[in-house]
């Protein structure tokens, strides 16, 4: 790709917000509770305590808000932010419907820095949680650095990210979608190095954190069959793989991917993705 055609970080950030907006109406509404499971684990790794102030960046539709709100109690505070207005509308509905009186939600990118769309005071938060979409940010180090500024001394930051993907599913995309012009769009930080534990820990040190450790956990996502998988994939940023396919080739791609999915069925007819999620916990210096 010519240098002039490479999208800037700001372009990728805008594309990330746009694809999340397109996902928002169906996010976690396809019968598969994938991101809610990740959010629950994220909160557990953050260990919020009664009375603490918690910032949730890339909060998506608010899956982490309720468990964080319950943990900090009425004397605590939870603030959710996301780059997608569609997602924060969903999160705001969660706040209202669940009666989360200690929660606020706003649309914005913490990496952009102040002024923020909601009152955020440096050095006042006890815990910052980063949603899984942080992995798609064109500037994860800036996200981490801004969170470090907002945390008090000894504050905790938790970021989730993916380990090695299930190789069977990589083949579904690479062998059946890319040849037809599909693939990840400019919202991916394609010029970032591959994330490794050493890279993430070094990035967090540069961002202002004094200590970090990472744990790996298996994640199993089960679908009733190809139709549920198709519905789910279009509710996630991975939809850009298919949005890049010329419309006249979509039936061909659908047929080829469908054949690949049939080959992946479990004995009971279901489809299973087995992944590794990594949760890195870092602390600011005292």
UniProtKB/TrEMBL annotation:
Gene3D superfamilies registered for this protein in UniProt: Vaccinia Virus protein VP39
Gene Ontology molecular function: any one: methyltransferase activity
Protein name: Methyltransferase domain-containing protein
GO biological process: methylation
Keywords: Methyltransferase, Transferase
Every Methyltransferase domain range: 54-155
InterPro entries xref list: Methyltransf_25, SAM-dependent_MTases_sf
């Amino acid at each position: 790709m010519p240098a002039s055609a490479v999208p800037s970080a700001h372009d990728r950030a805008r594309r990330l917000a746009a694809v999340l907006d397109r996902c928002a109406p169906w996010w976690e509404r396809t019968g598969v509770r994938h991101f809610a499971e990740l959010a629950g684990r994220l909160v557990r790794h953050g260990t919020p305590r009664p009375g603490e102030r918690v910032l949730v960046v890339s909060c998506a539709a608010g899956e982490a808000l309720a468990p964080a709100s319950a943990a900090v109690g009425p004397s605590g505070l939870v603030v959710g932010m996301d780059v997608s207005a569609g997602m924060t509308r969903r999160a705001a509905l969660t706040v209202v419907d669940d009666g989360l009186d200690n929660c606020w939600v706003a649309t914005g990118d913490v990496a952009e820095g102040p002024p923020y769309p909601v009152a955020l005071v440096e050095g006042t938060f006890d815990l910052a949680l980063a949603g899984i979409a942080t992995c798609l940010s064109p500037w994860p180090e800036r996200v981490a650095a801004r969170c470090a500024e907002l945390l008090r001394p000894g504050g905790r930051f938790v970021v989730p990210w993916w380990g090695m993907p299930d190789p069977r599913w990589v083949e579904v995309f690479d062998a059946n979608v890319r040849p037809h012009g599909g693939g990840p769009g400019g919202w991916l930080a394609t010029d970032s190095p591959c994330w490794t534990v050493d890279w993430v820990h070094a990035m967090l040190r540069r961002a202002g954190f004094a200590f970090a450790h990472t744990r790996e956990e298996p994640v199993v996502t089960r679908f009733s069959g190809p139709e549920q998988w198709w519905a789910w994939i279009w509710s996630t940023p991975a939809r850009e793989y298919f949005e890049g396919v010329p419309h006249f080739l979509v039936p061909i791609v659908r047929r080829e991917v469908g054949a690949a999915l049939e080959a992946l069925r479990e004995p009971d007819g279901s489809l299973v993705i087995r992944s590794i999620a990594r949760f890195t916990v870092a602390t600011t210096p005292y």
